[in-house]
Protein backbone atom coordinates (compact mmCIF):
# COMPACT_ATOMS: atom_id res chain seq x y z
CA UNK A 1 0.00 0.00 0.00
CA UNK A 2 1.44 3.36 -1.01
CA UNK A 3 -0.89 5.55 0.92
CA UNK A 4 0.31 7.47 3.90
CA UNK A 5 -2.11 6.98 6.81
CA UNK A 6 -1.49 9.50 9.58
CA UNK A 7 -2.95 9.36 13.08
CA UNK A 8 -3.12 13.08 13.49
CA UNK A 9 -1.17 15.01 16.08
CA UNK A 10 -1.23 18.36 14.29
CA UNK A 11 -3.67 18.39 11.39
CA UNK A 12 -2.48 21.77 10.15
CA UNK A 13 1.14 20.61 9.79
CA UNK A 14 0.14 17.23 8.34
CA UNK A 15 -2.19 18.73 5.77
CA UNK A 16 0.36 21.37 4.87
CA UNK A 17 2.99 18.65 4.29
CA UNK A 18 0.58 16.59 2.16
CA UNK A 19 -0.18 19.62 -0.01
CA UNK A 20 3.49 20.68 -0.27
CA UNK A 21 4.45 17.17 -1.42
CA UNK A 22 2.37 17.75 -4.57
CA UNK A 23 2.60 21.56 -4.92
CA UNK A 24 -0.75 21.61 -6.72
CA UNK A 25 -1.58 24.49 -9.05
CA UNK A 26 -5.09 24.60 -7.59
CA UNK A 27 -6.56 23.17 -4.45
CA UNK A 28 -10.15 22.01 -3.95
CA UNK A 29 -11.95 20.76 -0.86
CA UNK A 30 -14.99 18.48 -1.20
CA UNK A 31 -17.46 18.51 1.69
CA UNK A 32 -21.11 17.60 2.11
CA UNK A 33 -23.65 20.05 3.50
CA UNK A 34 -22.99 18.79 7.05
CA UNK A 35 -19.20 18.70 6.97
CA UNK A 36 -19.13 22.07 5.16
CA UNK A 37 -20.92 23.48 8.20
CA UNK A 38 -19.31 21.48 11.02
CA UNK A 39 -15.82 20.41 9.84
CA UNK A 40 -14.74 22.94 7.18
CA UNK A 41 -14.47 25.73 9.83
CA UNK A 42 -11.84 23.61 11.64
CA UNK A 43 -9.48 23.61 8.65
CA UNK A 44 -10.48 26.53 6.45
CA UNK A 45 -8.22 29.14 8.04
CA UNK A 46 -5.05 27.06 7.74
CA UNK A 47 -2.61 29.05 5.55
CA UNK A 48 -2.11 25.94 3.36
CA UNK A 49 -5.81 26.16 2.43
CA UNK A 50 -5.85 29.89 1.72
CA UNK A 51 -6.48 29.41 -1.99
CA UNK A 52 -8.74 26.35 -1.64
CA UNK A 53 -12.09 26.30 -3.44
CA UNK A 54 -14.88 24.55 -1.54
CA UNK A 55 -17.19 22.17 -3.43
CA UNK A 56 -20.30 21.10 -1.51
CA UNK A 57 -22.52 18.11 -2.27
CA UNK A 58 -25.61 16.56 -0.62
CA UNK A 59 -25.12 14.82 2.69
CA UNK A 60 -26.67 11.36 2.49
CA UNK A 61 -25.99 8.12 0.60
CA UNK A 62 -28.78 9.16 -1.79
CA UNK A 63 -26.38 11.84 -3.08
CA UNK A 64 -23.80 9.22 -4.08
CA UNK A 65 -24.92 9.39 -7.69
CA UNK A 66 -23.65 9.97 -11.20
CA UNK A 67 -25.32 13.41 -11.12
CA UNK A 68 -23.41 14.41 -7.99
CA UNK A 69 -20.21 13.03 -9.48
CA UNK A 70 -20.80 15.09 -12.64
CA UNK A 71 -21.39 18.18 -10.48
CA UNK A 72 -17.97 17.66 -8.86
CA UNK A 73 -16.28 17.22 -12.26
CA UNK A 74 -18.05 20.42 -13.38
CA UNK A 75 -16.93 22.35 -10.29
CA UNK A 76 -13.35 21.16 -10.81
CA UNK A 77 -13.45 22.16 -14.49
CA UNK A 78 -15.04 25.55 -13.84
CA UNK A 79 -12.60 26.14 -10.99
CA UNK A 80 -9.69 25.74 -13.40
CA UNK A 81 -8.47 22.33 -12.19
CA UNK A 82 -5.71 20.68 -14.20
CA UNK A 83 -3.99 17.33 -13.86
CA UNK A 84 -1.68 19.05 -11.33
CA UNK A 85 -4.50 20.09 -9.02
CA UNK A 86 -5.45 18.39 -5.77
CA UNK A 87 -8.72 17.45 -4.08
CA UNK A 88 -9.13 17.12 -0.33
CA UNK A 89 -12.13 15.00 0.69
CA UNK A 90 -13.51 16.18 4.01
CA UNK A 91 -16.35 13.99 5.20
CA UNK A 92 -17.71 10.52 5.80
CA UNK A 93 -17.57 7.51 3.50
CA UNK A 94 -19.89 9.02 0.90
CA UNK A 95 -17.59 12.03 0.44
CA UNK A 96 -14.35 10.02 0.42
CA UNK A 97 -15.80 7.37 -1.96
CA UNK A 98 -17.34 9.83 -4.41
CA UNK A 99 -14.53 12.40 -4.08
CA UNK A 100 -11.92 9.68 -4.55
CA UNK A 101 -13.69 8.54 -7.72
CA UNK A 102 -14.06 12.13 -8.99
CA UNK A 103 -10.33 12.74 -8.43
CA UNK A 104 -9.36 9.38 -9.95
CA UNK A 105 -11.23 10.12 -13.18
CA UNK A 106 -10.85 13.90 -13.66
CA UNK A 107 -8.29 14.37 -16.44
CA UNK A 108 -7.41 10.67 -15.86
CA UNK A 109 -6.55 11.29 -12.24
CA UNK A 110 -5.46 14.03 -9.87
CA UNK A 111 -3.96 13.68 -6.39
CA UNK A 112 -6.36 13.45 -3.48
CA UNK A 113 -6.20 13.44 0.29
CA UNK A 114 -8.87 12.00 2.61
CA UNK A 115 -9.77 13.62 5.90
CA UNK A 116 -12.47 11.27 7.22
CA UNK A 117 -14.80 12.87 9.73
CA UNK A 118 -16.90 9.90 10.88
CA UNK A 119 -15.73 6.85 12.80
CA UNK A 120 -17.00 4.61 9.98
CA UNK A 121 -14.92 6.40 7.37
CA UNK A 122 -11.86 6.61 9.65
CA UNK A 123 -11.65 2.89 10.25
CA UNK A 124 -12.96 1.70 6.91
CA UNK A 125 -13.98 3.78 3.87
CA UNK A 126 -11.16 6.33 3.73
CA UNK A 127 -8.38 3.72 3.78
CA UNK A 128 -7.69 1.06 1.15
CA UNK A 129 -8.52 2.71 -2.15
CA UNK A 130 -12.13 1.71 -2.79
CA UNK A 131 -13.82 4.64 -4.56
CA UNK A 132 -17.12 4.84 -6.37
CA UNK A 133 -20.78 5.72 -6.61
CA UNK A 134 -24.13 3.93 -6.45
CA UNK A 135 -25.72 3.19 -9.82
CA UNK A 136 -29.11 1.80 -10.91
CA UNK A 137 -30.06 1.17 -7.30
CA UNK A 138 -26.89 -0.85 -6.61
CA UNK A 139 -24.45 0.30 -3.96
CA UNK A 140 -20.90 1.08 -5.10
CA UNK A 141 -21.68 -0.40 -8.51
CA UNK A 142 -19.30 1.89 -10.42
CA UNK A 143 -15.85 2.80 -9.18
CA UNK A 144 -12.13 2.10 -9.19
CA UNK A 145 -9.49 1.02 -6.73
CA UNK A 146 -7.25 4.06 -6.24
CA UNK A 147 -5.70 5.09 -2.98
CA UNK A 148 -5.68 8.58 -1.53
CA UNK A 149 -2.13 9.86 -1.38
CA UNK A 150 -2.56 10.68 2.31
CA UNK A 151 -5.28 9.90 4.85
CA UNK A 152 -5.33 12.09 7.96
CA UNK A 153 -7.27 10.57 10.86
CA UNK A 154 -8.15 13.25 13.37
CA UNK A 155 -10.44 12.04 16.15
CA UNK A 156 -11.33 15.63 17.12
CA UNK A 157 -14.06 15.33 14.46
CA UNK A 158 -15.65 12.50 16.44
CA UNK A 159 -16.74 14.90 19.17
CA UNK A 160 -19.32 16.29 16.69
CA UNK A 161 -20.67 12.84 15.82
CA UNK A 162 -23.98 11.61 17.25
CA UNK A 163 -24.18 8.35 19.25
CA UNK A 164 -25.79 6.21 16.49
CA UNK A 165 -23.07 7.18 13.99
CA UNK A 166 -20.37 6.49 16.57
CA UNK A 167 -21.87 3.04 17.22
CA UNK A 168 -22.12 2.48 13.48
CA UNK A 169 -18.37 2.98 12.97
CA UNK A 170 -17.61 0.91 16.04
CA UNK A 171 -19.16 -2.17 14.37
CA UNK A 172 -16.37 -2.11 11.76
CA UNK A 173 -13.84 -1.87 14.60
CA UNK A 174 -15.46 -4.92 16.20
CA UNK A 175 -15.04 -6.72 12.87
CA UNK A 176 -11.35 -5.77 12.84
CA UNK A 177 -11.08 -7.15 16.39
CA UNK A 178 -12.63 -10.45 15.29
CA UNK A 179 -10.25 -10.87 12.35
CA UNK A 180 -7.15 -9.94 14.37
CA UNK A 181 -6.48 -10.94 17.98
CA UNK A 182 -8.35 -12.00 21.13
CA UNK A 183 -6.62 -9.17 22.98
CA UNK A 184 -7.93 -6.46 20.66
CA UNK A 185 -11.40 -8.01 20.51
CA UNK A 186 -11.66 -8.10 24.31
CA UNK A 187 -10.46 -4.48 24.53
CA UNK A 188 -13.27 -3.51 22.15
CA UNK A 189 -15.91 -5.52 24.02
CA UNK A 190 -14.90 -3.87 27.30
CA UNK A 191 -14.79 -0.28 25.98
CA UNK A 192 -17.70 1.98 26.89
CA UNK A 193 -18.82 3.27 23.49
CA UNK A 194 -21.82 5.01 25.09
CA UNK A 195 -19.51 7.28 27.13
CA UNK A 196 -16.34 7.10 25.07
CA UNK A 197 -12.98 8.22 26.34
CA UNK A 198 -11.81 9.91 23.12
CA UNK A 199 -8.11 9.50 23.94
CA UNK A 200 -8.53 5.73 24.36
CA UNK A 201 -10.75 5.60 21.29
CA UNK A 202 -7.98 7.31 19.32
CA UNK A 203 -5.53 4.53 20.27
CA UNK A 204 -8.09 1.90 19.29
CA UNK A 205 -8.79 3.66 15.96
CA UNK A 206 -5.04 3.55 15.22
CA UNK A 207 -4.98 -0.18 15.96
CA UNK A 208 -8.12 -0.80 13.92
CA UNK A 209 -6.80 1.04 10.87
CA UNK A 210 -3.48 -0.78 11.05
CA UNK A 211 -5.38 -4.10 10.84
CA UNK A 212 -7.14 -2.92 7.69
CA UNK A 213 -3.90 -1.53 6.23
CA UNK A 214 -2.09 -4.83 6.75
CA UNK A 215 -4.79 -6.75 4.90
CA UNK A 216 -5.12 -4.23 2.08
CA UNK A 217 -1.36 -4.14 1.55
CA UNK A 218 -1.37 -7.90 1.09
CA UNK A 219 -4.42 -8.01 -1.18
CA UNK A 220 -5.30 -4.54 -2.52
CA UNK A 221 -7.81 -5.72 -5.14
CA UNK A 222 -9.69 -8.27 -3.01
CA UNK A 223 -8.66 -11.46 -4.73
CA UNK A 224 -8.34 -13.31 -1.43
CA UNK A 225 -7.43 -12.10 2.06
CA UNK A 226 -9.21 -8.74 1.70
CA UNK A 227 -12.47 -10.71 1.76
CA UNK A 228 -11.80 -10.95 5.51
CA UNK A 229 -13.02 -7.36 5.66
CA UNK A 230 -16.41 -8.60 4.51
CA UNK A 231 -17.03 -10.57 7.70
CA UNK A 232 -20.59 -9.79 8.81
CA UNK A 233 -21.39 -8.06 5.52
CA UNK A 234 -23.14 -10.86 3.59
CA UNK A 235 -25.95 -11.03 6.15
CA UNK A 236 -25.49 -7.34 7.04
CA UNK A 237 -26.04 -6.13 3.46
CA UNK A 238 -29.14 -8.33 3.23
CA UNK A 239 -30.55 -6.66 6.38
CA UNK A 240 -29.69 -3.25 4.92
CA UNK A 241 -31.41 -4.10 1.63
CA UNK A 242 -34.53 -5.43 3.40
CA UNK A 243 -34.67 -2.32 5.57
CA UNK A 244 -34.35 -0.12 2.48
CA UNK A 245 -37.12 -2.02 0.68
CA UNK A 246 -39.37 -1.60 3.73
CA UNK A 247 -38.50 2.09 4.26
CA UNK A 248 -36.82 1.41 7.59
CA UNK A 249 -33.75 3.47 8.37
CA UNK A 250 -30.75 1.38 9.29
CA UNK A 251 -27.18 2.66 9.62
CA UNK A 252 -24.57 0.53 7.84
CA UNK A 253 -22.67 -0.38 11.01
CA UNK A 254 -25.81 -1.56 12.79
CA UNK A 255 -26.51 -3.95 9.91
CA UNK A 256 -22.88 -5.13 10.03
CA UNK A 257 -23.13 -5.74 13.80
CA UNK A 258 -26.28 -7.86 13.33
CA UNK A 259 -24.57 -9.58 10.39
CA UNK A 260 -21.55 -10.38 12.56
CA UNK A 261 -23.76 -12.27 15.02
CA UNK A 262 -25.28 -14.28 12.16
CA UNK A 263 -21.95 -15.09 10.58
CA UNK A 264 -20.28 -15.97 13.89
CA UNK A 265 -23.10 -18.46 14.38
CA UNK A 266 -22.26 -19.98 10.97
CA UNK A 267 -18.58 -19.83 11.98
CA UNK A 268 -19.38 -21.77 15.17
CA UNK A 269 -21.45 -24.45 13.46
CA UNK A 270 -19.25 -24.88 10.38
CA UNK A 271 -15.72 -23.87 11.39
CA UNK A 272 -15.57 -24.49 15.15
CA UNK A 273 -15.54 -20.83 16.22
CA UNK A 274 -15.70 -20.86 20.07
CA UNK A 275 -19.30 -20.51 21.27
CA UNK A 276 -18.21 -18.51 24.32
CA UNK A 277 -16.93 -15.73 22.03
CA UNK A 278 -20.08 -15.97 19.91
CA UNK A 279 -22.25 -15.42 23.01
CA UNK A 280 -20.06 -12.52 24.20
CA UNK A 281 -20.25 -10.74 20.85
CA UNK A 282 -23.98 -11.47 20.48
CA UNK A 283 -24.64 -9.95 23.92
CA UNK A 284 -22.55 -6.86 23.13
CA UNK A 285 -24.37 -6.40 19.82
CA UNK A 286 -27.80 -6.84 21.44
CA UNK A 287 -27.00 -4.29 24.13
CA UNK A 288 -25.36 -1.76 21.80
CA UNK A 289 -27.32 -2.10 18.54
CA UNK A 290 -30.66 -3.61 19.63
CA UNK A 291 -32.28 -6.09 17.28
CA UNK A 292 -33.27 -6.13 13.65
CA UNK A 293 -36.87 -7.33 13.54
CA UNK A 294 -38.01 -9.73 10.86
CA UNK A 295 -40.11 -12.87 10.67
CA UNK A 296 -39.55 -16.22 8.97
CA UNK A 297 -41.78 -14.95 6.14
CA UNK A 298 -38.87 -12.69 5.15
CA UNK A 299 -36.21 -15.43 5.02
CA UNK A 300 -36.62 -16.01 1.28
CA UNK A 301 -36.23 -12.32 0.61
CA UNK A 302 -33.11 -12.09 2.78
CA UNK A 303 -31.70 -15.16 1.03
CA UNK A 304 -32.40 -13.53 -2.34
CA UNK A 305 -30.53 -10.38 -1.25
CA UNK A 306 -27.55 -12.54 -0.22
CA UNK A 307 -27.41 -14.05 -3.70
CA UNK A 308 -26.49 -10.56 -5.03
CA UNK A 309 -23.39 -10.21 -2.84
CA UNK A 310 -20.25 -9.16 -4.75
CA UNK A 311 -18.23 -12.06 -3.22
CA UNK A 312 -20.42 -14.74 -4.78
CA UNK A 313 -19.04 -16.91 -7.54
CA UNK A 314 -21.37 -18.51 -10.13
CA UNK A 315 -24.41 -17.72 -8.00
CA UNK A 316 -23.11 -19.58 -4.92
CA UNK A 317 -23.21 -17.52 -1.71
CA UNK A 318 -19.70 -17.08 -0.38
CA UNK A 319 -19.21 -16.13 3.26
CA UNK A 320 -16.10 -15.06 5.11
CA UNK A 321 -16.12 -17.04 8.37
CA UNK A 322 -13.76 -17.61 11.32
CA UNK A 323 -12.34 -20.78 12.89
CA UNK A 324 -11.36 -18.64 15.90
CA UNK A 325 -10.61 -14.98 16.50
CA UNK A 326 -8.04 -14.11 13.81
CA UNK A 327 -8.41 -17.47 12.03
CA UNK A 328 -9.92 -16.24 8.75
CA UNK A 329 -11.70 -18.67 6.39
CA UNK A 330 -12.65 -17.01 3.12
CA UNK A 331 -14.90 -18.48 0.39
CA UNK A 332 -17.06 -20.56 2.73
CA UNK A 333 -20.25 -21.73 1.11
CA UNK A 334 -23.49 -22.29 2.97
CA UNK A 335 -26.72 -23.91 1.81
CA UNK A 336 -30.13 -22.30 1.98
CA UNK A 337 -30.92 -24.53 4.99
CA UNK A 338 -27.73 -23.37 6.77
CA UNK A 339 -28.68 -19.76 6.11
CA UNK A 340 -32.25 -20.22 7.36
CA UNK A 341 -30.88 -21.89 10.52
CA UNK A 342 -28.55 -18.90 10.97
CA UNK A 343 -31.52 -16.53 10.71
CA UNK A 344 -33.44 -18.66 13.25
CA UNK A 345 -30.49 -18.35 15.63
CA UNK A 346 -30.37 -14.59 15.16
CA UNK A 347 -34.07 -14.18 15.92
CA UNK A 348 -34.07 -16.51 18.92
CA UNK A 349 -30.99 -15.11 20.71
N1 LIG B 1 -14.87 -2.10 3.33
C1 LIG B 1 -14.16 -3.27 3.07
C2 LIG B 1 -12.95 -3.03 2.25
O1 LIG B 1 -12.45 -1.93 2.17
O2 LIG B 1 -12.48 -3.96 1.65
Structural account:
The chain has 349 residues and is α/β, with parallel strands linked by helices. Helix content is 49%, strand content 15%. It has a six-stranded parallel sheet, sandwiched between helices. Helix 4 (66-78) crosses helix 5 (93-105) and helix 5 (93-105) crosses helix 6. The mean pLDDT is 95.
Please give a handful of descriptors for the protein shown.
single chain, 349 residues, alpha/beta, Rossmann fold, Dehydroquinate synthase-like, alpha domain, 2 domains, six-stranded parallel beta sheet, two-stranded antiparallel ribbon, 14 helices, 49% helix, binds glycine
Mean pLDDT across all residues, rounded?
Answer: 95
Question: How is the largest sheet built, in terms of strand order?
Answer: 1-8-5-4-2-3
Roughly how much helix do the residues carry, as a percent range?
Answer: 40-55%
What is the strand tally?
Answer: 10
Name the structural class: alpha/beta
Q: Over the alpha carbons, how many angstroms does the gyration radius reach?
A: 20 Å
Q: Write the CATH fold name of the largest domain.
A: Dehydroquinate synthase-like, alpha domain
Identify the overall geometry.
globular
Unreliable runs: none
Please provide the ordered H/E string of secondary-structure elements.
EHEHHEHEHEHEEEHHHHHHHEEH
CATH class of the largest domain: Mainly Alpha
The number of helical runs is 14
Sheet having the most strands: 6 strands, parallel
Q: What number of structural domains do the residues give? A: 2
Distance between the termini: 40 Å
Beta-strand fraction estimate: 15-25%
CATH architecture of the largest domain: Up-down Bundle
Instruction: Enumerate the distinct ligands.
Output: glycine
The CATH superfamily of the largest domain is known as Dehydroquinate synthase-like - alpha domain
